[in-house]
Structure formats: structure tokens, C-alpha cells
TrEMBL record:
Name of the featured protein: Helix-turn-helix domain-containing protein
HTH crp-type domain: residues covered: 104-153
Gene3D superfamilies assigned: Winged helix-like DNA-binding domain superfamily/Winged helix DNA-binding domain
Signal peptide: none
Superkingdom assignment: Bacteria
InterPro entries in UniProt: HTH_CRP (IPR012318), WH-like_DNA-bd_sf (IPR036388), WH_DNA-bd_sf (IPR036390)
Length: 199
């Protein structure tokens, strides 16, 4: 049986190779160096690396799977949906579910970082930015995501909140990296703890 092959032009191949080389160069930056960079610079490097990886692998952004795909644990996802539905109305279950869906659709490959800022989440969910922290906090208490603080040079305070998906719930990228991350991460906690507003 004949196999259908996607044709790639020479300029496309050249662009993919250049993107792969640039992504590889960025990946060589040491953790020690990154630790001393301003938070905004680290986020910019993270997003640039992700964009270059996508450009280097067009099969993840075109064809049958536009924009790539995210691997999900069906059992964990169903449990999370059920727990969100049972949240009291004061906890904004519809907005928590919307935030969870946005998290799944916007993961950086091979790190699980959520590639949306607080303002972007607020705009897409349709709420005030101040409510995003509460909404994401609910997902964090469930063990669906974890939060890191990245200091931004010149600004006071704890730094910008950056979110990561629990690799036991979903992943976008290398399965080998996902396994390594999952080995260091606890699965989501028993979600019954959140029911009835207890948290």
C-alpha cells in the first residue's frame, strides 16, 4: 500500500533546522545562569525555547493535530471534572473548569509550564485578574497544578506567579521527561477534601 508523505520544501527544512539549532543553544543555558536572570527574562527564554521547538517539529503544529496535542490521564481528568462540579457556587466552579481547560490547552512542551499570564487567563475566563489567583488556588489545592514565584528585577513583592501542570494529570512533550517529572511529583490529593467548601 502506498504511503502518503507530507512534502517539505527546502526553505521549510532549512527553517526547521535553524529553529532546532536555536532551541538547542537555549537549552544549554545553565540553571545557575538562569537563576540569576530577572524573572521576565527567564519567562521570555522559556517561551522562546518552546516556540523554537514547535517550529523545528511542524508535525506537532500542523496536519491532523493543529497546535499539537496534550496527553491526559483519563481517570485523573474525570476525577478533577467531578470535583469541580461539586464545588460550592462561591468557589466559582464554572470558572475553575474553564481555567482547567485553558491550562490543558496552553502547556509548554517538556516542562508542563502554563503559558498564560494572569491577565491572559482573566481575559479568556471572563473574570477580573484579581479572581484568577483564587481560581488557580483552587486547582493548586486539588493538586492539579503547582505555583512558583519568579522575582522580577526592579519590582517589590514575592514575584510573578507561574503555574505548572501536575504530570500525573497531563503532559505535552517527551514521555521520558514526563516520567522523570512524575517521579518527583505527588499525584493529585484526594479531591473529596475540597467538597463542601472545605480546603
Amino acid at each position: 500500500m502506498a504511503q502518503i508523505v507530507r512534502l517539505t520544501t527546502k526553505p521549510q527544512r532549512s527553517g526547521q533546522e535553524e529553529a532546532a539549532q536555536a532551541a538547542e543553544q537555549l537549552s544549554l543555558l545553565s540553571e545557575e545562569l538562569l537563576k540569576h536572570l530577572p524573572g521576565e527574562a527567564r519567562i521570555a527564554i522559556s517561551r522562546a525555547t518552546y516556540a523554537l521547538q514547535k517550529a523545528a517539529r511542524p508535525d506537532t503544529t500542523e496536519g491532523l493535530w493543529p497546535g499539537g496535542f496534550t496527553m491526559l490521564s483519563r481517570m485523573q481528568t474525570a476525577t478533577i471534572w467531578d470535583a469541580i462540579r461539586e464545588l460550592p457556587s462561591d468557589d466559582r466552579p464554572n470558572q475553575v473548569r474553564h481555567a482547567f481547560d485553558l491550562v490543558l490547552l496552553n502547556l509548554r512542551q517538556d516542562t508542563g509550564e502554563v503559558l498564560l499570564t494572569r491577565d491572559q487567563l482573566a481575559e479568556r475566563i471572563g473574570c477580573a485578574p484579581k479572581h484568577v489567583s483564587t481560581i488557580m488556588g483552587t486547582l493548586e489545592k486539588m493538586g492539579v497544578i503547582r505555583r512558583e514565584r519568579r522575582r522580577i528585577e526592579g519590582l517589590q513583592g514575592r514575584g510573578m506567579a507561574v503555574y505548572f501542570i501536575n504530570p500525573h494529570v497531563a503532559w505535552n512533550g517527551s514521555l521520558d521527561v514526563r516520567k522523570a517529572q512524575a517521579a518527583e511529583t505527588r499525584p493529585p490529593m484526594q479531591l473529596e477534601l475540597l467538597q463542601g467548601g472545605a480546603s
